[in-house]
## 1
Amino acid sequence: MTISLLYALVGVVLLGIGLYSLVIYSHLVKKILALNVAGSGVFLFLVATANQTSGPVPDPVPHAMVLTGIVVAVSATALALALACRIHQVTGTTRLTKNEPE
Amino acid sequence: MRRENGDGLDSQTVKMMATISVLALTSVLGWTVWTLPPFSDRMQRLVASNMAVSGVENPVTAVLLNFRGYDTLLEIGVLMLAALSVLSVVPSPAIFSQSPPSPILILLLRLLLPFIIIVGGYILWIGKYAPGGAFQAGAILAAGGILLSTAAVPFNRLASKAMPFAMAIGLLTFIVVALATMMVRGNFLQYPVAQAGILILVVEAAATISIAIILTLLFIGGNPEESSTAKDEGDKAFIIDKDKANK
Amino acid sequence: MDEFPNLADIVFDGILALVLLVLAWKLLRSPNLFKAVVLFISFGLMMSLAWVRLKAVDIALAEAAIGAGLTGALFLTALGKLQRDAQNNHENNGTDQQSKERRPNMASGSSD
Amino acid sequence: MSLSEILQPVTLPAWIVSLPLLAAVFSFVLPRIRVGAGIFTAIITPLMVVFLGREIFIHGAIQMQVGGWQSPLGIALYADGLSAAMLGITAVVIGSISFYARSYFSGVAASRYFWPLWMFLWASLNALFLSGDIFNLYVTLELLGLSAVALVALSPTADALSAAMRYLLVSLTGSLSYLMGVALLYAANGTLSIKLLAAAGLSSPSIATAFALMAAGLMMKSALFPMHFWLPPAHANAPAPVSAVLSALVVKASFYILIRLWLVIFEPFINPSAAQLMGALGAGAIIWGSVQALLAERLKLLVAYSTVAQVGYLFLVFPLSSIHQANQTAWQGGLYFVFSHACAKSAVFLAAGTVIYSFGHDRIKELHGIVRRMPVSMFAFALAGVSLIGLPPSGGFIAKWLYLNAALTGGQWWWCVLIIIGSLLATAYIFRFFSRAFSYSPEVVEERPVPWIMEWTALGLALCALILGFIAPAVTTLLDAGNPF
């Protein structure tokens, strides 16, 4: 088992932990944290595979993809937190209200 | 439908289902990763063989700003979009310490800010040769901006006209360069080889300014210029009867 | 090139991998949101270390600055704001019907 | 340099992405010209799309290597008949709604942010339909998702904010799932280009897992049953122009990616039962969405649930096209659904928005006799309803006709039964509203005067849905240009 494979598997497990928490916790801040952890998992997987080149230099393309991904993640987190604060202001709760009447 | 309702009685069932499905997903994914075919070197070799004409020496910067520059252009769009969205959602800033900042904080800022700006500039510049570049530099400058905002430095004056422009300059420069190179060489973002280095630096410098301002703004959360009355006016336009709609 | 990792490397990476998983699990399980965010920031810093191990120094820099630093700061301000709003509401109308939906301490928020 | 030199056909895709992006920048930086910038783009971009379509119609698909870097290294912009048709319907719908929005948002504070966000949404849709690279598609998906969420949140009610939050969480989860699929494909094949992935001769279990992840993420974003729970609140509570574009285009964007990937990369490698499964989910969506639409108490909620049902029809294309003889007909039918629903649904949402604009609510029970108050809007609603039900002559009719043909040719008669049931349910929920709208009411209700352009935009889009019923041969020829079928 190589080091890259180890980190790739850690990435997969982080994705799993993130998705699990996203579903079971209802506090919005918790959900947003969970999404960030899940995202880190995907990024870790990407970079870990990039490290498996036969030469000493890793593949730079996944690195660029992850840099892009990190910026997208922080953008999405900022919007999500702003929305969560606003929802709390308006409704007084930090959880999503129940669905529309069915 | 009930899955979002974490406080409900059925949280036990939700937990059970989530556990099972996530375990299944993780094991399938883990197995897939385990059985992946050997990683191909092709892309790494392609990047290496084109470094000479990329205008920079750090392969990651070459991919970000040249080979896959279009992704980065859209990504700076994502950042600006996020700033816009936060402004539209939170009309007033989160940080509004009315009390005057402590003299120690001011002193610290006086010492720290020039240092932060120099480090930011250095990281932007070094991105051409070594790890670094617009995003890292922008983030470091944003740290300075956040310090400033906690010290209640009157950003607001500066904010009025210059802020939107500073937020947009990165994306604007990138698009203009991309279109200009397209008119000269036929393809979107196709830098002339001799000028690639300088064009990339221009794009990155503009992007750094925007990234720094946007990240600071995401943190402050809200435009100091806009009062909360803006939102109240908005309410009138979308008259949706809340009681009935909410049911 | 990681065909023949030496023992020290294996131990270091093994521990780092374990730390990452434990931190992620702990931070998401923590009922105290403030603690969760602090753990999230340390998780980000550990991720930076992992990026360095994977020869991705660019990402390590970005992760430390943006992933851990800025995102962490965003979470902390959001928590502060939530708490302040809760207090304001409480002072204004302490006995409204919605107040039972709010936990006494806004920083606590897991479903169990 | 003359205009014809600048506007070389091969550069058109780049202009079609850049123009709305520039408009987004300028409408934010110079708020005074925001409406002008939006309207200008709403006029120029459709012209460019027409040029691009003409070029593809005559000379076949256009490919641009961004930065001049060939495909595994660089990103390809790829425009064939399918892209051109999607760009075209986007231009028609967003272009017309821009005029509606100009009145709808005039004098409203939210207008400050509406126009830049609106232009970002358009740019992201255009970039998405032109992309030939799976990671680039991820970036466009995020751009699209964030702008859509921010637009929903422009409506300041508690319901809209919660709906926006739910939408954001689902959208991010979907993108993450898609990105993991991209990561697997890259790890296994070392390329991100759709074309090269198709030629790579994929193997190993990674392809199936990658497909499952990408499909799950995209189906979430298209609100396919049972992952539709976020759609009705988001689409029902957003400002009307936003609801219209979300239902008409945004859910189709992820569907477009799915069919593109399915046709070019995955179809030969994936077990046919996957297609049947997607069809079964589509069937669930048709029944569930229609029944909920029948029970809805608010007009916009009715229309939103109708979208859930119509998304179900889109996914029937996978099982229907799996039989070789019916392949072509099924795909034409599926894409016809995309186009006719885009026109019809945006018309219906605009009409519903006009009702709210005028009366301040959209409770169906209290909308007695509104047909006399706003005949143009209700006429638009009726025409679009014809297409949603699938009565001739309309785009919706052609789509269902093609589907029925494909089902019969392929010997899958059970889908015919489903389509007929779905049409009956659609008739029921449309007429349930109309029985109110046409009923006599003596009471005088306070109302706000409606600018004529709002009513006529809805009618224009409804007419487009109708016209699609007459120009089927031209549309299918365009779809055939450089197409992957």
## 2
Amino acid sequence: MDAIILQILNGLDKGSAYALIALGLTLIFGTLGVVNFAHGALFMIGAFCAVTMQRILTLSYETIDATKTDFLGNALKVKTPYVESWFGPEMGASIIDWAVPLAILFSIPIMLLVGYVMERGLIKHFYKRPHADQILVTFGLAIVLQELIKHYYGANPIPTGAPDAFKGSFDFGTLLGFDPNTVIYPYWRMVYFAFAAVIIGAVFAFLQFTTFGMVVRAGMADRETVGLLGINIDKRFTIMFGLAAAVAGLAGVMYAPINSPNYHMGMDFLVLSFVVVVVGGMGSLPGAVLAGFMLGILESFASMNWIKDIVPGIDQIIIYLVAIIILLTRPRGLMGRKGVMED
Amino acid sequence: MGLLEVKGVGKRFGGLQALGDVNLSVQENTVHAIIGPNGAGKSTLLNCFVGKLIPDTGSVMFNGQSVLGRTPFEINQMGISRVFQTPEIFGDLNVMENMMIPCFAKRDGAFRLHAFETVENEKDLVEKAEQMLIDVNMIDKRHMNAASMSRGDKRRLEMAMCLVQDPKLLLLDEPTAGMARADTNNTIDLLKEIKEKRDITMAIIEHDMHVVFSLAERITVLAQGTPLVEDTPENIKGHPKVQEAYLGEAH
Amino acid sequence: MSNSNLTRRGVLKSGAVAGAGVALPTIFTASSAAAYTNEPMGGSVTLGFNVPQTGPYADEGADELRAYQLAVEHLNGEGDGGMMNTFSSKALKGNGILGKKVEFVTGDTQTKSDAARASAKSMIEKDGAVMITGGSSSGVAIAVQGLCQEAGVIFMAGLTHSNDTTGKDKKANGFRHFFNAYMSGAALAPVLAARYGTDRKAYHLTADYTWGWTQEESIVASTEALGWETVNTVKTPLAATDFSSYITPVLQTDADVLVLNHYGGNMVNSLTNAVQFGLREKQVNGRDFEIVVPLFSRLMARGAGENIKGILGSTNWHWSLTDEGTQAFVKSFGTKYGFPPSQAAHTTYCQTLLYADACERAGTFNPCGVGEALEGFEFDGLGNGKTTYRAEDHQCFKDVLVVRGKENPTSEFDLLEVVEVTPAAQVTYDPDHPMFTGGALGECNAG
Amino acid sequence: MLGLSKKDTKFLFIVIALTAATPILLQPFPEGSAMSQFNAGYPDLMQRFAIFGIFAIGFNILFGLTGYLSFGHAAFLGVGSYSAVWMFKLLSMNVLPGIILAIIVSGLFALVIGYVSLRRSGIYFSILTLAFAQMSFNLAYSVLTPITNGETGLQVTLNDPRILGQQVAANGNVPPTNFFGLEMGSSLKIPVGGWEFTFNAGYYFCAVIAILAFYLSLRIFRSPFGLMLRAIKTNQTRLNYTGLNSRPYTLAAFVISGMYAGLAGGLLASMDPLAGAERMQWTASGEVVLMTILGGVGTMMGPILGAGFIKYFENIFSKINENVLHQWFSFLPDGLEGFVIWVAEHFVGSGWHLTSGVLFMMVVIFLPGGLVEGGQRIGKKLKRKKSDGDGDDAEHHPKQSPHVAE
């Protein structure tokens, strides 16, 4: 039982990442009709916003410590971050410690800008082009973005820790009557889940309760009619693209402490999130979120030892297997509409 | 016994009774029109003939065989061709290629892996297709890309594609919908010409009374999913029930 | 061939071997014009450096490439000579190899066996490379080693840790300087037993591919021999990024050690996740829960940040060693590039020097001659103490380092501290040890 | 001739001539010159051009004609390679049984996957094929290691039975792959002036098969079957109401293109007897999609050009390193040289991915019809110059359907 609770929690956590990426993909697809293969790269850029924030905060000046030597036997250069000299060592250290949450503020304008530039500079010209062309051009863009990141940050993962306040884990088990330390969950992962829930909720509320959102939803359902009403839907769609980029970026920023960011993390997530989007049903926002959490949980269950003993290698293929089964039983995924991307 | 025998067909969509209890008989070598106001169930009925919908009750017999439960291509192979409200043609192909496809379907059936023959070498079929294009006055457009043609030409091409299969029954779903008066008249002339040149049975679903009365030999009036009357055009014209059904309608 | 001029010239070139007076163009296998594949004809010799330049191991590949360039400089008599000065064999003169200037070509393995072979083939076929070296994974090493055997050139393996490279997939033309999974186990187990006790219960997470399996097998065998119990061994997919669902089941067992048979990004993520779930603070039966990473790499350890502090593992070499070979290498590498070399860099540098030295001693570039010179070769001064290239399986036997993540690093490179230098004798095994059987070296192939 | 129209016959002969002359055409720079880095006339790469050409031609039969975008075609390539290597292990190093088995097994594999996946269309179809291929890759890499040798890839060894052939060659090694005694690795090297041309048996073996494959696909494009496939792409509704069952047509196209992929996989293993699991990864499937779109979807030459383009960048650009750059730009003044090299470094060596990414974008943005369209535009410009003032502008003619061979 405790094992199952833990795997559900793991699944919710994995699902949060899938759902956030899939949500953005669906927003872009649903509003602009564009299949965005660069969406994983946006997630990656988000994570690197956190890395960059950390780099900025730890910008240092060097002093020579003659008592110690470096690897070449020269006197050691000790680096002291500027923030530590400005705010004092303790205050400075805690500012650096909070790099990831600070990066959230920093990433929103950056991601909006990246999204805006991408949409105006490139995607805009591909609205009327075949999906295959959209895939190719955004895939090319994804490669370019990831190679640029690789060039400046290297290929290795870069550790980007959560603030100390969120280190350690919460003992759920004792609340539920299990032995201590059997059902525990890291604080940051819980933060991630809560954060994902808030973002998803906010996006839905925005689309549901604002006029802007209503227009966009109408545009998703029938773009031409809304266009005929004289509403400048294109402008709103640009904003939607920026929003989707911001959602992906925030998902990335918050993910950085869970797994150290590296330049190809976007590609790792890309294929899975496409599977998630399609399983949810092309163009369906609730479908994307539902499928994200569902596949996350199933993936976690599949990695349990007794299941792996029965079906060896099941954790390698579970997502694809479920995708196949769902698509064969529900032709348009969980909540897909008819006629979307079927030709 | 008619070519197409429809008995007791009913169809519900959720709470809506789209078709009640439709009985209909299309006789061989006649032009049979099915008319009715918007929402009368004309299209639903047509979709039951071609395999797109399966009625909840009743039977649809074509040439003595049931069409229910068969797929559109099987029904076409039985001898029913269909013209759509908006012309359905192969837009990326040229006119001649559009014509060759029904020719192959007629000769080779629903599937044949003829991967090592060449389209141009099928002399008999090419000749047949060209003759058809001559018949519909499109032979000079044979190399034209189908998507780049006018709507009227597309309609003409679609009809040619259906006729080249020598169907026993040709179903026309509002063939003049959205057309200008001149185009409508052209279409009427085309259909009349076809009717004169060959023995063919046609079932037309139509909105436009002008078209109906110029072509039809028998008319079924459909209202709220059930046939009101079936009679000759002359009798239908003055029928009180029909006028009642169309009251307030634009036509 | 209608143009007789072309044909004549063809014969002229191949004439030396095909025999004069043959009027028809001779079809010969890729190399029979020369005595062996890509025999260097001019004043230079070309070596092929095949390293990952794209993909997750690109940084490691870049470091390997730096070391190769440094080695080439030293061989050609430029720079300070590095480990050439401390190397026990004095055959190298700093005038290239056998008087020929050393040139090199580079290629990208992409850490895929297919791409690595394509790249190596282009070096052999297009650039005339007489030796191929490099790589950062066992799959690639074994695949390229097989290719070199077929093509008739020497392969000096880069970073490859699987038992199979010099076990069931060993090849006469292939040589490995790097240590292997068995040696990790043999070196690590006594240290683990000494520090954590002999009655531990270990839970293994293993990357689900050949290298992971051989490492798991080795560590399980060597720890069980000292009294440990293996609670479970769980395979994790290579593509896994989030290991939480593999870590949480550990909480429900009575295991008190977690062994992570992962490398690269997998290692960084699984270790990070394990620490997130509080395994380092966990107590089992009154004892601290421990995490072990049998194969450590400084470059990768950096990705795990603070999480590696205090964690034990093994490594082939580390820049903080104090022997003169290491110091000479670190000095010349550090002076040129501004940071200390990684173990991958050290291995590739050594391999280049060892190859060049073998050519000098054999007096030829012929793979069979070079192979013979390397087989059973004993040397010192390359940073790992006294080392032997064993003739039976072409594996180097040398001291293995047991290291621990450093608590108070002084710089971003100072991440590991050497806990123990396990003497070569302790990690030496019989050539027909069951973990290494199933293959044959075969005959050396000169093309 | 050969059941082809005059125009197509001419086209086929041009392709044959180009293929035969490839070892010369790809070696435009003399040995040892600074530009010789760009030469591609060595056996391995030429073989890859031919093999990936076959792969892309086959893919184009499915994607170019029917419009069904498979994202899992690499699985068939991988299955083909594994089958061929198993034949080398069990039977003999003759490539023929290996290639035949590769085609059969991949055909069967495609039949099963196609039968299931073709129940859906559009992106749902793409994801189904992707899922099957990723499952194959993941399992081949791990659980199926006894069959696939996992991470390392399936290799031939000295212990293999090879019941019909030599187990060990005279020199104590695994015998080389051959076609009834003709070794795939054997080459004829002909130096001409500063140039050296390599005529490799393996390349010509692949080239002959590639030409056959090209000829077959040309016939399919011109056949009634090909016409039906194009009809499926434009309007499936009309096709169904014209009495044609689209399912067996798409399935046949899927299986045929799967067999092409299997053939390519078998050839890949024949040239280099190793089958790596990465051949089945989604990136490999994506690569053939890129090849086809880059070259020009639905055209005859496009996929081949696209395959050549991508393989060229992968193999040539990745090998350019800092040293080579220094050689090239050494004539520049120091500061400028440094700057030029700094810029160029982003795009070569470890940056070759960046170059390919930029090029994908450029091609899609500026040449929506792929490289073939680029060629046509150049051709048109040349023509227009010739007939300047002629008044015979193509635009004044009624729009013609583009000829698929162009």
